[in-house]
Amino acid sequence: xxxxxxxxxxxxxxxxRRRAVDDMSFDIRAGELFGFVGNNGAGKTTTMRIVLGxxxxxxxxxxxxxxxxxxxxxxxxxYMPEERGLYPRxxxxxxxxxxxxxxxxxxxxxxxxxxRWIERLGLAHHASxxxxxxxxxxxxRVQLAAALVHGPRVLVLDEPFSGLDPVAVDVMSDVxxxxxxxxxxxxxxxxxxxxxxxxxxxxxIVGGGRLIACGTYRExxxxxxxxxxxxxxxxxxxxxxGLAGVEVVSREGTRTRLRLAKGADDxxxxxxxxxxxxxxxFVSENPPLTELYRDLVTGTDDRTGGGER
Length: 309
Ligand SMILES: Nc1ncnc2c1ncn2[C@@H]1O[C@H](COP(=O)(O)OP(=O)(O)OP(=O)(O)O)[C@@H](O)[C@H]1O
Fold this sequence. Notes:
Blueprint: E1 4-15, E2 18-29, E3 33-38, H1 44-52, E4 59-64, E5 67-68, H2 71-74, E6 77-80, H3 92-102, H4 107-120, H5 136-148, E7 154-158, H6 166-181, E8 186-189, H7 193-199, E9 202-207, E10 210-215, H8 217-223, E11 226-231, E12 246-252, E13 255-260, H9 266-274, E14 281-285, H10 289-297
Parallel strand pairs: 3-8, 3-9, 6-7, 7-8
Antiparallel strand pairs: 1-2, 1-4, 4-5, 9-10, 11-13, 11-14, 12-13
Helix pairs in contact: 3-4
The structure holds adenosine-5'-triphosphate.
GO molecular function: ATP binding
Keywords: Antibiotic resistance, ATP-binding, Nucleotide-binding, Transport
Subcellular location: Cell membrane
């Protein structure tokens, strides 16, 4: 994968006295699917709007290929806003052609691109319908087509998967993976962490307006410390207590899940388990992104649970 093309550097934004985004920095590489996750109110939409130039930051800047993003660069961005922004009375085909032309495509090119995306996103039966008469999921497909119709060089998508049926999620995932394979950097926010884990090359986790972790799933997983599942049928509930660098995450019957701090010795864990009797399972586990996320976000976001600061 190539180097960074889209850089968010030290971005800060307040609404009145409320700090929504604070010293936010990350970059996205060409051809990379970058998942942007965080609790409600963590600052994702505000950051994405700043990337798009819909909002101006109080400090910091966004750069595209090393230069501050200006009007010309932004015309090459494709954006799917959280508050979907389609004209309800326009017909789907007409709407997409209009948006293509608005972004500088010729009338013929806009017609052809609109037709292509209508077909690709499974909207062929709805091309002549008014947007407002479509189901919400289909409106969302149109919204994705609207972000793609002008052949953008960057995609910024705010919760593109919310409310989609599983088939539409697959179509959307395939399309985004294809765009990324074509070298387009794709930034997407989502609360569907299993999907983000599966789809995205890297993940940025936002808490309280700041980026609290960023990396591949594997990197995030390694930084969080190793997990072990140990099944010691004759052990009592306290067998792992007091082992240095070892935390008991959960116990179900005879199975204990442990988290090991960096550098903690798993062989000492094995010895301690064997000292209780037979050990029928001793397995390294990769926690799902959801669990890593919970560990990272807990305690870092004083707006956790949708509250505001
Ligand atoms: N127009 C606004 N005026 C005042 N405060 C705002 C405005 N927009 C957002 N905020 C506040 O800024 C903070 C960040 O909001 P933002 O919408 O960026 O979060 P988010 O991570 O996208 O949340 P969600 O997952 O719920 O969409 C919140 O405290 C929110 O209430």
